[in-house]
Write a structure and sequence with these properties.
It comes from Longicatena caecimuris. The protein is α/β, with parallel strands linked by helices and 239 residues long. Helix content is 36%, strand content 27%. It is built from 8 helices and 10 strands. Helix 3 runs parallel beside helix 5. The structure holds adenosine-5'-triphosphate (ATP). Adenosine-5'-triphosphate binds next to helix 1. The site of adenosine-5'-triphosphate has 11 residues, from helix 1.
């Protein structure tokens, strides 16, 4: 599904070039719920941005369903991102003057006359359909994040990218959001998620750890026992 070969990425600052990713190789399978961990500044978001076509790469290749990301640009890249990728961030980036329903439907309206039906179906899935006519300022942080998940799913993406989606939420709300993502994954949704939290990482099915610009480990969890996964994540992150 996603094939990353020898991905290298550096950033230019005033006086020097800083290499962040130094040769990442990874194959993401359909149905993976891949957790990306690593120290602050290690390059987790940079990896997500490169794989989702948001940022360019210096060397290597990223192939998504047979398309090489570095060989397409402009409109073609925009269309691929719209139809194949969904995004959830720590900040929900909802549009304040659109209702919850409109926030979810907006990117689908340009090509589907039934976009609102699809948006309603997703609001039901994340259990906030009763809030469809509210504006973002009239719902809680957790409800906003549910809305952001529905919005990310509205174009039926093959891959859902999530960058610290629960970092701004309290523990119980974070668990509710993770249960939704876990359920989506069980229904077949491929997810790539960055988190700092071993507790949150335990909801995944597989984990990589970024260190010194490469993936130091690539570990499949054995099941969906949260406690067992948590223990495994702790072993990996503490060694
Ligand atoms: N556009 C940019 N220009 C220059 N440096 C950048 C840019 N984006 C990121 N960096 C640097 O690249 C490094 C990796 O950043 P990145 O955001 O990928 O780390 P991270 O592992 O996601 O960190 P955190 O866990 O703190 O969010 C950091 O040192 C950051 O300062």
């Amino acid at each position: 599904m996603i094939d990353v070969k020898n991905l290298r990425k550096s950033y230019q600052t005033q006086d020097k070039t800083v290499e962040i990713l130094k040769g990442i190789n990874i194959h993401v399978n359909p149905g993976d719920f891949m957790i990306i961990m690593g120290e602050s500044g290690s390059g987790k978001t940079t990896f997500l941005n490169c794989v989702s076509g948001f940022d360019t790469i210096d060397e290597g290749s990223i192939e998504i369903g047979g398309t090489k990301l570095n060989e397409i640009k402009g409109k073609a890249l925009e269309q691929l991102r719209l139809h194949q990728f969904g995004f959830i961030f720590q900040d929900n980036y909802l549009i304040d003057n659109l209702t919850i329903l409109e926030n979810v439907a907006i990117t689908r309206l340009q090509y589907d006359a039934k976009a609102y039906d699809k948006a309603m179906e997703l609001l039901k899935k994340v259990h906030i359909d009763h809030l469809k006519d509210n504006y973002p300022s009239q719902v809680s942080g957790g409800e906003k994040q549910r809305c952001a998940i529905a919005r990310a799913l509205v174009n039926e993406p093959k891959i859902l990218f999530a960058d610290e989606p629960t970092a701004a939420l309290d523990r119980q709300t974070a668990d509710e959001i993770m249960n939704i993502l876990s359920e989506l994954n069980k229904q077949g949704q491929t997810i790539l998620m960055v988190t700092h939290s071993p507790r949150i990482a335990a909801y995944g099915t597989r984990m990589v750890f970024v260190e010194s610009g490469v993936f130091e480990c690539d570990e499949a969890f054995t099941g969906d026992d949260l406690e067992a996964n948590y223990q495994r994540v702790m072993e990996i992150t503490e060694r």
